[in-house]
Amino acid sequence: xxTPAGTTPPVxxxxxxxxxxxxxxxKSFSRLQVLRGIDLEVARQEVMxxxxxxxxxxxxxxRCINHLEKINAGRLWVDGELVGYRQRGGKLHELRxxxxxxxxxxxxxxxxxxxxFPHMTALENVIEAPIRVKGMPKAQAAxxxxxxxxxxxxKDKASAYPRQLSGGQQQRVAIARALAMQPKLMLFDxxxxxxxxxxxxxxxxxMRDLATSGMxxxxxxxxxxxxREVGDTLVFMDQGAVVEAxxxxxxxxxxxxxxxxxxxxxxx
Amino acid sequence: MTTPRMAETAGRTGPPEEIKAVxxxxxxxxxxxxxxxxxxxxxxxxxxxNPRFQWDIIGRYFLxxxxxxxxxxxxLLTVVAMAIGIVLGVxxxxxxxxxxxxxxxxxxxxxxxxxGTPVLVQLLFWFNLAFLYPRISLGVPFGxxxxxxxxxxxxxxxxxxxxxxxxxxxxxxxxVVRAGILSVEHGQAEAAQALGMSRTLTMRxxxxxxxxxxxxxxxxxxxxxxxxxxxLASVITVTELLYAVQLIYSxxxxxxxxxxxxxxxxxxxxxxxxxxxxxxxxxxxxxxxxQLPPTPWQRLRRYLFTFHAPPPAPPAQLPSGEGR
Lengths: 268, 324
Description:
The structure holds 2 protein chains of 2 kinds.
Chain A lengths: L19 E10 L2 E11 L4 E5 L6 H8 L7 E6 L2 E2 L2 E4 L2 E4 L2 H8 L2 E4 L11 H11 L5 H14 L15 H13 L5 E5 L7 H16 L3 E5 L3 H7 L2 E6 L2 E6 L1 H6 L4 H10 L1
Parallel strand pairs in A: 3-10, 3-11, 8-9, 9-10
Antiparallel strand pairs in A: 1-2, 1-4, 4-5, 6-7, 11-12
Helix pairs in contact in A: 3-4, 3-5, 4-5, 5-6
Chain B lengths: L2 H9 L15 H23 L5 H8 L2 H32 L4 H15 L3 H9 L1 H4 L2 E5 L5 E6 H4 L2 H27 L2 H9 L4 H31 L11 H12 L2 H30 L11 H10 L19
Antiparallel strand pairs in B: 1-2
């Protein structure tokens, strides 16, 4: 198993445990094995892009990281803390719902289908969780949301309902909504796959901006250009395992494994 | 060879010439209109000329205090029973969808029991509860009791009617609410959870408000149905609208005119409820349509003031530039 640990240049001024650390992660849905022993390390401020054919377990891996899915075996840490469990003595104790929610609140997630709340305006979508989950005063949340929407180029769309927005605009609102919780880690699950080709660029620009600002990001994507330019690490997954990982340029131009070569020859 | 023509069109200034054509005739519509008109004329004629309708008696009793008291009680029964039904329905629906097997089967059993027996039987059952439990007490289970009351004093005809109608309605509303909750896409709950929202908060802020669009129309239906079902309370001596007019015609034998009095009142209240439902549906439609449907007043105004003008252009609410 190849781990991407060590392939990333250490970022000066950032210390502490890795943002995400996975050891021998297994996940299966009834009899279907989706993840078969994933080892992974994501450093602070690292941007990791994950590519691979559909059904390779990329999305499931993301969903395990914020505990939308329970892992069956292995260990998973986010920011030095076990995901979903507490270790006391030699035993693992399941976390309570409140504790799981508190941890999820620190991890932003962006979905392929946007999943904006259709009964709320763009602004209401963004301020909902800061107010209800973090207990942020409404005025403060609205000010923060205004800044985030502005950064996403959607200043004049604050009072629009999702259905009045294009796919690209909806996805940028979804990114602003995740950022409003001031997360330490952002997960992107094929954020541009449901978009018309001409709208992809705007979303990628917002993500690039975010990466430059030092956010730790894990991006499941098919955008090889983005992976090459913005990613610090590129991971190729197939059949629930990491096949190859390394610097994006090296993996893309000089893949070591035959399976990686076969996949890249189809998508590049 | 379209190129030269395209150039020609592009060179022209001003809006394109609108098509003027002879519209298709619809002789069938005229025939249908004639038939309907004839039937309506016959109906009006008989209503006016048949002396047995006794419109003077209908007029005399229409606003009489006994009828109005009955109407008030009917509305009270409908409102209270529906309120109980809706609250109970939401609780039962959430229980039914719970991952806790005990909660979901308890909800299932409740719905099975209350939906499976006639509401008339349930009303009679509650009315005669004293036969089963002559004394009702509040206290520790199998232990001492703090409060005691005679069942016959506690369960009056009115409380029996409210209990019977409300508890029965809860079973139906549970299914309505459950359908609404299931209609909300799973991604919504996931997005809320990913933001750190608890299951309760997700249900209250994200799922239920969206489920409302599916819940409201059948709930309006249930409310209108309840208005009329409340007349069953007449069998347990609650003097709601039907029983009120029955008491009057049992003395003066003007059965038909008084039943017409009651029917007109039921129609009036149903009309008010229908209008209310329209506005509630419109409220919960925000975000689901690019443009809310016009209210009847807006439609009437537009119809009156834009007579012969072309129909209004579709609202330009699309995002500019990026159409999707």
